[in-house]
Amino acid sequence: MIDKEYRHIGKPSDRVEALEKVTGQATYTADLEFPGMLYAKCLYSPYARAEIVSIDVSQAKALPGVKAILVGDDIPYLVGLYMVDKRILARGTVRYQGEPVVAVAAVDEKTAELAVSKIKIEYKQLPSIQTIDEALEGKILVHEDINDLEYIKGVFFPQPDSNIASWNKTIKGDIKKGFEEADLIVENELTLPAVAHAPMETHVAIAQADIYTNKVKIWSSTQSPFGVRKLLAKALNISTADIQITVPYVGGGFGGKAGIHLEPLVAVLSRACKGRPVKLVATREEEFNQLPSRAGMRGHVKTGVKKDGKITAFEIYYDWDSGAYADYGVNVGKSATYSGAGPYEIPNIELHSRTLYTNKVFSTAYRGFGHLETHWVIERQMDMVAQELGVDPYEFRMKNILRPGCLTISGEEITENSGSPDECLAAVAKEIGWTGYRSVAERRSNINTGKLRGKGLACLQKAPAMPPHTSTSAIMQMDDDGNVRIMLGVVDIGQGANTIMAQIAAEVLDMPIEKVKVMWDTDTSRHPYDWSTVASKYTFMGGNAVKKCAQNLLLQMKEMAAQALRSSIEDLAHGDEYIYLIHHKNKRIKYKDLALGYAYENGNGIGGPLIAKGTYMADGLTFLDPVTGQGYPALDWTFGAHGVEIEVDIETGDIQIIKIASAFDIGQAINKKLVEGQIMGGVLQGIGSAIIEGYKFSPEGKLMNPSFTDNKIPTAKDIPMEMIPIIIENPQPDGPFGARGVGEHPMISVPSVIGNALYDALGINFYKLPLSPENVALAIANLLE
Amino acid sequence: MCDKHNNGVNCFSHVDSGLPEVMLSCTVNGENVCAHIDPTMTLLNFLRRDLKLFGTKEGCGEGECGACTIIMNSSAVNSCIILALEAMDANIITVEGLNKNGKISILQREFISNDALQCGFCTPGMLMSARALLDRNPEPDESEIIEAIAGNFCRCTGYVPIIKAITSASKIEREGMKND
Q1: Domain B106-179 is of which CATH architecture?
Q2: For residue A34, with 0-12 CB atoms within 10 Å meaning exposed, 13-18 middle and 19 or more buried, which class applies?
Q3: How far does A399 lie from chain B, in Å, by closest CA?
C-alpha cells in the first residue's frame, strides 16, 4: 500500500451536525407538533398469554376529546419482516405481557391516558411458554397457526407444529470423523438473558393519513425508513408510492429501531381520526416491555481438539429465547450459521441455530446482531478448552485463528485482503501485558488483600448480516455558490454516517468539508434508496456509493470544462475547487462556475445544473445453502480482539476494570475520532451486557424490571479506569479508501473477555450473564465453602 | 410498576388534577415568564409544551436518566420530576440559554471538538449538569466530574469524551478568567 497523503480521509473532522446538537436546535420526532395533532396511548396485556374474552371501551369512548379507539378486530392486518406473524393490535390471544391490545387517540396525552384507564378488558389467563426447554418441548404453541404463516422460503425454516420460528444449520466437513480424530473433547453450556437497547430517545412515530386516498405520511425515529415504507405498504395493502417516511434526528437506535414498530398503529389511528396527525411516544416502560429487546440465548457447545491444540470439530446448538414474534430474531439466528464459531478455522462443524417463540417481549436486531451472544459462548469455550488442554489461551487461539487460505464455517476463503484477526489479538495481548494464566499459588498469595486481579483475552468477528443483493445510492447537487448537497438514504443515528460521507465526498472533490452538506431528515420521497441503517455496512457501501457519486460529479464538471477550455477530459485535473489544464494550471474554471452549467462571456451556455448519482450493490454474495449453510454471505469481515485486566472484590463480587484494550482491523479509519467514539461507546455498552443489564421475568412471564431504576445501563461511574482503542489498518481493496465497518463490533466479546479474566483472577468459570456483583460473590462463596 | 397497572383501574397519577389553574412566574434563560398552569404539571412539560423549548428532552419521565436536566437556581435538576410550580420565582437555564452573547459557549465548543456526543439526545441534559458543576467548582477533578454526570445516562459515547470535554472546558474557562 502506497502511503498517500489525504486531505480529509483519516482526519478528525468534527461531527457535521454537532452544533445543532449542543444548542438544543436538533429536532427529534418527539419535538414535532402539527396542526390538529392528536396523541395516542395504548393499553397493554398484563398477561404473558391469555385469551381476550371481551373489551369494553364504552366509558372511554364517552370521554370528551377522545377521537378514536381501535381494537385488534378493527385492524385485520399482519406485519412482519421475515415471518408475517404479528398483528398491529392483539386479536383473540395476547402473546406477551406488554403486547398492545387497545389504542386510543385523543386531543392531548392526558385525555388519551384517562381514556385508556377506563377501558375494561376481560382476559382468560392461559399457561405460557417461558423457557427454552418449554419452547422446544412444544406442548403449548405460541403461534398455533405456525404452519400457515407467510415467510421467506429457503432462507428461514419454521418447523411445523412447533415453537421453532426458524431452524438454520451449518454442516461442513464430517464432525463424526472430527471428534474421532480429537484427543480431547470439551463440552459446555452457556446462557445470557434478554437485554434492552435502551436508546435515550424512546420509539416515536407520527402519522397523517389522507382519508380520500391511500396516502400516508409518517415521521418516525426509525433506522430503516425504506424498510418501514415497504413493510407498511404490504401490511396496509397500499402502494409504496402512497407512503412518505421522514426521519428527523434519531436519539440512538442500536438495532431496536430497525424494522417496523409503531408506524402501522399511528397510520391506522390517523385514518380512524379522519386524517388528523396522530403522535405516539413510547414511555420508558413501554420501551422495555412493549418494544423489542435482544433475545436471551443458550449455547451448547462441544469442541474436539488435538493434543497440539488444533481444533478438529465443533458441534453447536444455539437456542434463542426470541419472544412472541419473529421480527429480526430469525435473522439474528441465521447469522450464527456463517459466523457463530468465532474467527477460527474449524474443519468439521455442525451448527444448529433455533429461533424459538416464547411468551415474552419479542426480540429484534441489537448492535452486534447475535455476535455478542455467540461470542459469549465461543470465546469462553476457547478459554475452557485451553484450560483442559493445559495450554495458554493466547497460543490456543493463535493456533486456530483464521489466516489467508483458511475457510470460514460457510466455506468462504479468507485472503490477505480480509483483515487480520491475529494482529488484533497480538496487539491487545501486548497492550495488557499478557503472560498466561496466573497459577493457583499466585491467586492464593493475594487473597488476603480482598482483591484479586486477572487478565483475559477474546477475539471477535462480524460481517454485515444482510441480503446478498443489498444496495444503496447517493445523489449530489452543486449549488450556484459551489456548495455540494448530498442526499442519502442512510439515517445518522449518532454513528456519524453523514460526517463520514461528507469526508469521502470532500476528499474525491478535493474541496473544503464545510462546503459539503449532507442533507438531514432522511425522506423516502426525496432521498435515494438505502436498504436499512444496520449491519455496520454503511461506511463500506454508502462510502462506495458516495465516492462513485463524487467521481461522477467530477466527470460532469470535466466534460463541461473540456468544452469551455477547448481541451479534452484526459488533459484536465482537479483540485481546490478548480478544474484546470494539467500542463497549464492557470487555465482553469472554478467549480461554482460549472454548478448551473457554464456560461460564456457572450451569454452562450453549455451543460446544465450538476446532478450526480452513485450506486453500490453488494457483489459476489450468495444465499446460503438451505441444508448445509454453505455460501458467500460476507461483504467484508471486520476482525477484532479485546484484552482486559480486572480487579475483583472477593467480598462484594464487584468487578473493577483496570484496563481494556480493543483492537479492530478496519482497513482505513475515515475519521479516527469517530472510530474511537464507536469503540469506547461500544465497549461500555458491552460492559453493560457483561456486568449490569438483563431482563428479569416472573415465572408467569411478567417483566419485573421495566425501568431504569431496576434495569440500569452503565453510567459514568461504570467506566473502566483505562480504555485503549487500537486501530489496525490492513486495507480492504473494495472498501472506500480501504475502509471496513466497525459500528457494532466494539461490544462483541466484551462479556467473554471479562468472563475469561474472572477465571484468571478467581479460578472460577462463569457460564451465565450478567457477571453482576451478586452472581460473582455467590460463586466465590460457593468456592470458599 | 403499579400492581393495578393495565388492569383497567385508574392508576395514572398525573391524569387530570381537576384543580384550578395557578399562576407561575419565573425567569427562563434570562426572560421573565408568567403563565397559568395546571398545578400538577411538571417543569419539563411546562418548558416543552407551554414555552416550546424543545431542547430539553424526556428520556424516562421518572428522574432516572437525566435527559431532562436543567439548571434551577444554580443546581442541576431533573425537570421531569419537579412540578412547574416549584419553579416559582426561580432562575432557570436550559440548553437554549447556554450561549454567550449569541455565540456558543466554551463548554459547548469543547463538546463538539472532543466528540462528546453521538445521537445527541442526552447532550442537553449532560451540558446542564456540566455547566452547574463548573459554576460551583471551576476546577473539578475527574472524580468530581464523574460524580456530577453520574445521573446523566449516555448510551452512545462511553462517557470518556464527555469527561474530556468538561475537563478541557474547565481549563479554558479558567484561563479566560485569568485574562479578563
Answers
A1: Orthogonal Bundle (1.10)
A2: middle
A3: 33
